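Continuing the series of single-chain predictions for the mutant panel. This is the parent chain; the variants come on the following pages.
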Amino acid sequence: MTLPKDVLRVLYDNHGQWITERLLCETLQVPAETIRNLLQGLMDEGYKVDSSPDKGYRLVYRDYLLPEEVYRGLMSHVFGCRGYFYYREIDSTNNRALELAADGYPEGTVVVAETQTAGKGRRGRTWHSPPRHGIYLSVILRPPLPVREVPRVSLVVGVAVAETLEAEFQLPARIKWPNDILINNRKIAGILSEVVTSPQQGIDYIVTGIGLNINNPLENFPGDLRTDPTSVMVERKKPVSRVKVLQELLMRLENRYYQLLEGDFDGILKKGKSLSMVLGQEVKFDMPGGLTAGKAFDIDSNGFLLVRDEYGKIHTVTSGEVYLSLHQDSGNEN
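Parent structure:
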């Protein structure tokens, strides 16, 4: 018997309703003092439990990304199921996931935090990570793919995030190659993948971090962001359940990832192109000699962006920043 989970289950079964201390004692067959200690432990973890001398106790829902909350409706079979590491506060979920991956933790291990003190963005930038407003998670992946196909994984993640926002909230999420998700030209999510390779097996592991703005009020974003931000709450005009978003995201990410491993990258690529806000646009991109301009016209079979410059030369953009001409500073982290 795992008493903390048992008392939580009883409270959930009577969600929002009062349940007497006596009934809790009889149900779990433990004394009242044990019940009080168990309830205090739940409150220390972040659950809100109302108490009354006459009525007993009742669970009040709080939107924490605790394992018990996420597991109750989790639809994935691997992601989050093989390991779920939860932190109230951490420097970076990517840092912790890299440590776990180096220690041999399996594919699908997830690290989630309520806030990050040094959330990682691309090119050394940081991700704005206020407590309990967004979803900050990292997933360990161990794909049996050649190193040249790492960009395919980035597209998989981008598609999964965009599909989650589209399915859950009917938001017109678009992918700004390679790693940003925007709603009406405002950034709602960023993706950072860190790859560790070895000469023997190519990709050893990938840690993919996702920062997703959920219940962030617009006025709470820093004023020095280089890309206009938004959140689900700003777009929907009301707060939403981060737990439900995380459950949906893990399920969609797992489905798309195993679609890739099963050899159907074409289906992912087709969806990625349909969600792209870069294709057909005039862009600027980083090259060794500086910024180069051209028109983005395709994403190739490796997930690289193809751009044709004014002289007709085709450039294969494998990484780095891509700037839309009408939104020059887009592509930076929060």
